[in-house]
């Protein structure tokens, strides 16, 4: 039996990881530390029996120290972060506070208990980061490898780059046993509907415009969140302390292709599911019209990176990682999850 502290475990990726870990490691105790901001939702993990939710801030150094010490935590999996690029443009301060100062607070607490107090307990601090720290690629550039220079272009990615460097420094300076994974665009269940896929799905159901930045041809690598969880599990088990691993989905697609597939899946759902038109009468598909008529082009986002792509060779070779989900089936399953879990996202809309 092991004790894990999962920061941000009531959020999208963290919440999925909690579900995944509890299913795969039923004897482990999972303590979730989450301050339940707009993107943190207690309902996401409410049905996981072996989870203890502690509502608190990762910047509360004494709280984190006490949790690691008193719960005999051997592994910290650090998801907690402000992560929406648009919000970082309008209000970068929260990203500095949470992503940089919060990560430093966690590292200090881990160092104090695991190293300074001399417990000798084997430990691991695993840090979740993003491919956005690497900047933007031209169409013919090679995909991001772990040795690609950091060139963050938004306040969000700059704050994550800084936290990556802090994690690395605590390993090289103090000997803290750390690993980092840089992931591509995640999608799947429990994602807060400000990100592209859930936003466009719910907009389509309610007959709202689908706002497309610029020409819609910005390219991202799409990673199903359960594949991401598998990659993290592999890194915790086989990753070398001090090393970084890129986790991708192997699905490099322009945004327009993703949006077109969303429209197709929504239209298909209305054709196949009895009663859907009655539930969502404002959807074009409820009235025999194509969802694509909701597509609307808007001014491009400031500093919008053109292309991300992940080279996951290192994770494949050293961790045995490979994605199991393809985007077509993964997107269809995601749509049906939102249709089957209306209470979950309705509650978020009421609270917004």
TrEMBL record:
Recorded GO MF terms: dTDP-glucose 4,6-dehydratase activity
Domain (NAD(P)-binding): residue spans on this chain: 5-332
InterPro entries on file: dTDP_Gluc_deHydtase, NAD(P)-bd_dom, NAD(P)-bd_dom_sf
Family according to the record: Belongs to the NAD(P)-dependent epimerase/dehydratase family. dTDP-glucose dehydratase subfamily.
Top-level taxon in the UniProt lineage: Bacteria
Keywords for this protein: Lyase, NAD
Name of the protein: dTDP-glucose 4,6-dehydratase
Pfam families associated with the record: GDP_Man_Dehyd
Reaction equations catalysed: dTDP-alpha-D-glucose = dTDP-4-dehydro-6-deoxy-alpha-D-glucose + H2O
CDD domains according to UniProt: dTDP_GD_SDR_e
Gene3D superfamilies: NAD(P)-binding Rossmann-like Domain, UDP-galactose 4-epimerase, domain 1
EC number of the protein: 4.2.1.46
Cofactor: NAD(+)
């Amino acid at each position: 039996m092991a004790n894990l502290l999962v920061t941000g475990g009531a959020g999208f990726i963290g919440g999925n990881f909690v579900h995944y870990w509890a299913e795969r490691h039923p004897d482990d105790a999972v303590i979730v530390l989450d301050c339940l901001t707009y993107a943190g939702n207690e309902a996401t993990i409410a049905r996981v029996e072996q989870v203890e939710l502690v509502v608190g801030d990762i910047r509360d150094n004494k709280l984190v120290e006490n949790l690691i010490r008193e719960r005999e935590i051997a592994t910290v999996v650090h998801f907690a972060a402000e992560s929406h690029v648009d919000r970082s443009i309008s209000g970068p301060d929260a990203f500095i506070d949470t992503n940089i100062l919060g990560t430093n607070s966690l590292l200090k607490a881990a160092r104090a208990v695991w190293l300074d107090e001399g417990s000798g307990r084997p430990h691991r601090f695993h840090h979740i980061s993003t491919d956005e720290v690497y900047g933007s690629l031209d169409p013919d550039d090679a995909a991001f490898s772990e040795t690609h220079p950091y060139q963050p272009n938004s306040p969000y990615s700059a704050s994550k780059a800084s936290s990556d460097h802090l994690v690395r420094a605590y390993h090289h300076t103090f000997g803290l046993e750390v690993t980092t994974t840089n992931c591509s665009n995640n999608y799947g269940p429990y994602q807060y509907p400000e990100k592209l896929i859930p936003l466009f799905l719910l907009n389509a159901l309610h007959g709202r415009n689908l706002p497309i930045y610029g020409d819609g041809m910005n390219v991202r690598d799409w990673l199903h969140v359960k594949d991401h969880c598998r990659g993290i599990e592999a890194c915790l088990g086989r990753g070398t302390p001090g090393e970084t691993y890129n986790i991708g989905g192997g699905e490099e697609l322009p945004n327009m292709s993703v949006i077109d597939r969303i429209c197709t899946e929504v239209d298909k759902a209305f054709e196949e599911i009895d009663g859907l038109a009655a539930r969502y009468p404002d959807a074009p598909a409820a009235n025999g019209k194509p969802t694509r008529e909701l597509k609307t082009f808007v001014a491009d986002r400031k500093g919008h990176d053109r292309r991300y792509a992940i080279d996951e060779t290192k994770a494949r070779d050293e961790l045995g990682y490979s994605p199991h989900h393809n985007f077509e089936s993964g997107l269809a399953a995601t749509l049906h999850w939102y249709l089957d879990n209306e209470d979950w996202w309705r509650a978020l809309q009421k609270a917004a």
